[in-house]
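hey
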């Protein structure tokens, strides 16, 4: 049995925290918009503004991770998330709340790219397994987040959920102080890694894929609670259940890919996931007035989301092993740019009447069209390209 690495365990704990806190925002849109006196359709402003900070963070953190000990990036990320949640709990001013969301985004973005890179450096012999496990633990947190909100709402104080997230983030930051993850020796890029280095042309398929996928995942997770409440007239407990089951399906998808590993190739996992997302979102469009059907379809969308990100990240790491930190930062930054746009677009299309699920369905079609561009292709010599996805 492989030895458990304390640093890997800590990164997984951090991802549980990120999953919990990141998925409290959407189920509390009605509370936040009510508190600050803005329309429900503008609730996604909190998610989009968070993504502005996240975009800056993943670009900067990605470059820093190839230059400095990852401990500094990870500690700063968790500390900023704690500070942002504390500020959001205590401010009655909308402008200050938006500022808190920017800080939160910077912290979350730093942890997202930092932990993904850190687990590959702490155990390079188990890089792919650890990436899958890390994103699996995010799903665990994402399941717990909406239920934490549900408990807080039952006590008529949604801020109790935010306070719990603040304490968790603070503890994670304190533990990161003692972790050390030195910068690895750089490996020259050769024909066995990537003939294109980090050129825009080589990265563009990954940029497009992550731009569409990340925005879609975050947007769906943020608005599915509202979809159940408005389109299906479901009570808060059922809406929270649908949100948790979306993340439950997401986590199950990550678990399946972790268990089966390379028995199925990364490009195949990618397509299976995308098709499943399309089927689930189509079901929500067709049967959105039925709460039971909506809960099932939300779970199906989550199941499809599970394999997409780790498969794409595995393909990216295989393509750019010498500069994985920088490459990860770039593509994750583009994903965060999408989070600035897509949740707000989905809210506007929903117009206070539903969750705007048409955005998810259209995104699935785009992802299916783009997916062949990140799959292995034969080289002119007849050998397979280095993007094998079998890491």
């Amino acid at each position: 049995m492989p030895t458990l690495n304390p640093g890997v365990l800590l990164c997984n704990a951090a991802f549980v925290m990120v999953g919990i806190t990141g998925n409290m925002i959407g189920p509390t849109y009605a509370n936040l918009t009510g508190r600050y006196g803005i329309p429900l359709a503008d609730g996604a402003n909190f998610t989009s503004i968070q993504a502005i900070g996240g975009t800056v963070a993943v670009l900067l953190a990605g470059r820093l991770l190839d230059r400095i000990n990852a401990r500094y990036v990870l500690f700063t990320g968790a500390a900023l998330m704690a500070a942002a949640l504390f500020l959001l709990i205590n401010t009655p001013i909308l402008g200050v709340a938006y500022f808190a969301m920017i800080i939160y985004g910077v912290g979350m973005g730093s942890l997202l790219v930092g932990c993904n890179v850190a687990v590959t450096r702490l155990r390079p012999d188990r890089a792919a397994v650890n990436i899958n496990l890390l994103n699996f633990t995010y799903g665990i947190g994402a399941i717990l987040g909406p239920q934490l909100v549900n408990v807080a709402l039952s006590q008529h104080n949604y801020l109790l959920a935010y306070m719990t997230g603040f304490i968790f983030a603070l503890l994670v930051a304190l533990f990161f102080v003692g972790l050390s993850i030195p910068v690895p020796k750089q490996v020259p890029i050769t024909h066995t890694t990537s003939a294109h280095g980090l050129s825009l042309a080589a990265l563009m398929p990954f940029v497009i894929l992550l731009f569409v996928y990340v925005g879609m995942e975050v947007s769906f997770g943020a608005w599915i609670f509202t979809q159940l409440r408005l389109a299906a007239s479901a009570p808060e407990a059922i809406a929270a259940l649908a949100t948790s089951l979306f993340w439950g399906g997401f986590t199950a998808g990550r678990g399946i890919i972790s268990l089966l590993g390379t028995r199925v190739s990364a490009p195949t996992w990618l397509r299976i996931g995308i098709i499943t997302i399309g089927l689930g979102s189509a079901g929500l469009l067709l049967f959105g007035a039925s709460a039971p059907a909506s809960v099932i379809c939300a779970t199906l969308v989550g199941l499809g989301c599970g394999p997409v990100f780790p498969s794409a990240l595995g393909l990216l790491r295989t393509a750019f092993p010498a500069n994985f930190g920088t490459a990860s930062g770039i593509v994750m930054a583009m994903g965060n740019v999408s989070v600035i746009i897509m949740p707000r677009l989905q809210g506007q299309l929903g117009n206070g009447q539903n969750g705007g699920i048409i955005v998810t369905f259209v995104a699935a079609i785009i992802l299916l069209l783009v997916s062949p561009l990140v799959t292995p292709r034969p080289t002119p010599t007849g050998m397979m390209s280095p993007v094998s996805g079998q890491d």
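The two ends are 20 Å apart (CA to CA). Residues 187-196, 378-391 have pLDDT under 50 and may be disordered.
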